[in-house]
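User: Predict structure, ligand magnesium ion.
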Amino acid sequence: MICATDLHKRFGSLQVLGGVSLSVAPGEVIAVIGPSGSGKSTLLRCLNHLEHIDRGTIQIGGDTLAQSHGGAAAHYAPPREARRICQRMGMVFQHFNLFPHLTVLENLIEAPLTVKGLKREQVVPVAEGLLRKVGLIDKRDNYPARLSGGQKQRVAIARALAMQPDIMLFDEPTSALDPELTGEVLRTMRELAQERMTMLVVTHEMAFAREVAHRVIFMADAQIVEDRPARDFFADPHHPRARAFLEHML
Ligand SMILES: Nc1ncnc2c1ncn2[C@@H]1O[C@H](COP(=O)(O)OP(=O)(O)OP(=O)(O)O)[C@@H](O)[C@H]1O
Ligand SMILES: [Mg+2]
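Assistant: Predicted complex:
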């Protein structure tokens, strides 16, 4: 579903991805963990083209988003093609990023209407179905400001799903929430995983990573230093940075 090879990314003199490779199979749930500044968000943002990589190859569902030959700078697909490829991925951010001037329902249907050019009568029933799924159909006509953090994040998940992505990318979806609100968001994510959605989740929720993720990718200093089945990783982290991190987190 995702095949990324030898990704390099710098911000000025700072190397943020120093030759990162990963592949994700359909239905796989991967937890991306690691210390602050290790490049986790940048990795996700590069995969769905919110950031440009300097070098490397990114393939999504068999289509090439970016490609490097012989260490040359990455060459991207033309803009239309790149947009089509990236539409296969939905992204959920730490701070929800809902449109404040749109109601919950309008937040869900905005992209299907404007980006996909679908008709209102097609998208409204789908959006309502998704709101039912995340337990928020009664908030259909509310504005985001009237929702709790957990509710906002569930709307953000439903909004990403409304574009019918093949892959969902989550960047610390519960870090901005009070502890009592994280459970409802994790429950929604767990249900998605059970439906075999392909998911890449940057998270500090070690219990969630341990229970739901099939694989753990541990990043440190712009590299993936471990990429192993979650069960093995938590039982016996190999890399000293991973050991130190887990000792700190658990
Ligand atoms: N747009 C940017 N311009 C310059 N530097 C950036 C930019 N975005 C990120 N960085 C830097 O790149 C490094 C990696 O950032 P990134 O956000 O990917 O880390 P992270 O692993 O997600 O950390 P955290 O756990 O704190 O979210 C950091 O040192 C950060 O300051
Ligand atoms: Mg981050």
